[in-house]
Amino acid sequence: MAQEVTTVDRRVLDYVLDGDTQLREIQRRLEAAERDQQHHRIGELHAELDAIDGYSAEARAHQLLDGLGFRPGDAGRQVQELSGGWRIRLNLARALMCRSDVLLLDEPTNHLDLDATIWLEQWLRQYPGMLLLISHDRDFLDNVVGHIVHMHREKLDLYKGNYTAFERARAERLAQHEVQFQKQQQRVAEIENFVRRFRAKATKAKQAQSRLKELERMELIAPAHIDSPFSFGFRPADKVSNPLLTLHKADCGYAGKTVLQQVSLSLAPGDRIGLLGPNGAGKSTLIKTLVGDLPLQSGETRGGEHLRVGYFAQHQLEALDLEASPLLHIKRLDDKASEQQIRDFLGSFGFNGDDALEPVKRFSGGEKARVALALIAWQRPNLLLMDEPTNHLDLEVRHALTLALQSFEGALILVSHDRHLLRNTVDDFLLVANGLVQTFSGDLDDYQNWLAEQRRRPEQAATEQSGAGDRSGTSAADRKAQKRLEAENRARLRPLRQAVEKLEQQLDRVSTELAGVEERLADGELYQEANKERLKTLLAQQGDLKLRAEQIEGEWLERQEELEALEQVLRAE
What we know:
With about 575 residues, the chain is α/β, with parallel strands linked by helices. It folds into four domains: about 10-105 and about 120-130, no CATH class; about 160-225; about 245-450, Rossmann fold; about 480-570. The chain has 20 helices and 13 strands. The protein has helices at about 10-15, 20-35, 40-50, 55-65, 85-95, 115-125, 140-145, 165-175, 180-200, 205-220, 285-290, 315-320, 325-335, 340-345, 365-380, 395-405, 420-425, 445-465, 475-520, 530-570, and strands spanning about 100-105, 130-135, 145-150, 155-160, 245-255, 255-265, 270-275, 300-305, 310, 385, 410-415, 430-435, 435-440. The strands form four sheets. Strands 9-10-11-7-12-13 form a six-stranded mixed sheet. The longest helix has about 45 residues, at about 475-520. It starts with 11 loop residues before the first helix and ends with a helix. Belongs to the ABC transporter superfamily. ABCF family. YheS subfamily. This is Probable ATP-binding protein YheS. InterPro entries: AAA+_ATPase, ABC_tran_Xtn, ABC_transporter-like_ATP-bd, ABC_transporter-like_CS, ABCF, P-loop_NTPase. GO terms for molecular function: ATP binding; ATP hydrolysis activity.
């Protein structure tokens, strides 16, 4: 997979077909034989073409383009009309078109959205040859590879298993070094604290279960990243409004084209939302509308008095002053900050020593992305809008970004093809599809199933259309039976739903009481000798409330699992 497109004077379809060099060679010889009217040779070449499935080559190329997110009409366009990101996708399609025993892929998911990344995973799992790839997408690695080669201190170490297995093995190896012990424990404690806070506010079972599993896994692998040079965070904003930003019955789009209709959304501090949806459905349009880059076509938007937006998108890298250093970029934002303060801050983003003074033009894409993140973090936003922030970031920076977003106290809206980042940083999903923005109640596995269903629908529609003449309308008796079945199902589900709601109310009450106790424990005077008994009482209350919250949450997860299992059974019936 080449990283640049050198040939542009070609149609998109032809450029992809060029990846099959054997096909192109047979076609070239066939043209020559037809020109010279070598009839016997023409027959031989057609037999060769048939042996390599040459007659289905265009269909295979179209499938690759479709899977990677190209629209149907793109196959006939000129390569030179495509943007840089789409040209990289085109190179990937060309590499997959190639007949190969060894497939070499360098960051294949960098310019893909989540839908295309999932499709590519499925394609690679069926690839019969040897695959050697570089990727900073841990879920992608987990689902595709069976070995990890770790390049560290000019050495190569081979680990058997996927990326998660590598992290655990490396964590165990690093944990044996006593010097690292305290630092490891601090990082694990930070993640444990986030797990506890999430448990206290968890309200959606499937997402909550998925999220808790991911967070608990992060506790296990935290030591594997203990020698990372990145330790940045998003400092809390000075002031916060509630709500921070609202959209009311908004039509969103551009150049007279409406992409999203009647969008209503209210963002409050602590909201953590991931946007899901097919390529081109309007996820970036929604974010650009929220940040103000796109004016509303109709409806209303209102920002809170203290709203401060941090916005990360690909054009943020292009907006950097290539001649200026990271230090100068921040100095322009805050001329009162001392050079040492800025240097210390930039060090957490990996810009140490003279790196903070280097002009941005000398930086790689990943280093420029870190500069853009540093500029956002310095300004202390209370609303983060992030559109594919992990492009160009390596695994250590992605891990640091995950931790930073976990501890961010404001509101977050995230678009990303990095499923690990989504699972570990957002609590709710919105589905952007078919011109609408709606709540998506499932998790990422459910979204993958939803995508598969969307791909099947055109086939089902064609089948139903072809068989329409053989079907009669639904009878009144059938409709009555269907309504009776639906009523019975609702009755079977009602007790479990009521139990879940009751447990959620109990959890809310205990969480509120626990927050009050912990607020009192934060009072410095409490730790004076005169207040010893009061401190002892509050600590006992804190322990009891934590235990009670865990018990309620455990029962809540059990009831919710029963509810979802029954819902699946009823759907199957």
